[in-house]
Design a protein that fits this description.
By secondary structure, the protein is of the alpha+beta class. The protein has one domain: Beta Barrel (Lipocalin). 16% of the residues lie in helices and 57% in strands. It contains one helix and eight strands. An eight-stranded antiparallel β-barrel has the order 1-2-3-4-5-6-7-8.
Length: 129
């Protein structure tokens, strides 16, 4: 190969390697705990159990309301999103979660679908025991 061709080949390899690294989903598999804000400013201890397969996120949310599976879970880079479908007195409620993951925490916002209130913010920490 000539010098110009070799330089282009090396540049292309570097670009592919960099793009592949950036596109990898954050590893949020495992359990996470958070004090999630509720009505009246009170917080509720909540556990999130996640499993990641490529960009697909599955798992559950456990709180005083019980354990609920998550739906529509996605992980793209360090962005995470999913919904939680609840039912209260015959009324169906969908909660939308969006977060930014790092090694040991996920900074979340959550909002009721169709709700007028601004999103609530909280941070989940990776459960270590």
């Amino acid at each position: 190969m000539g010098n110009l061709t070799l330089s282009r080949f090396i540049a292309a390899l570097w670009l592919v390697a960099t793009t592949a690294t950036i596109a990898m989903a954050a590893d949020v598999t495992g359990q996470w705990v958070a004090d999630v804000p509720g009505r009246g400013g009170q917080t509720q201890s909540t556990t999130f159990a996640f499993k990641v397969d490529g960009e697909k996120l599955t798992g559950s949310v456990t709180s005083s309301f019980g354990e609920t599976p998550i739906s529509d879970g996605k992980v793209q880079g360090d962005d995470i999103s999913f919904t939680q479908n609840l039912e209260f007195g015959g009324n169906k409620v969908t909660i939308i979660y969006k977060g930014k993951a790092s090694a040991n925490e996920i900074r979340f916002t959550r909002q009721r679908e169709g709700g007028q209130a601004p999103p609530a913010e909280f941070t989940a920490k990776r459960k270590t025991s």
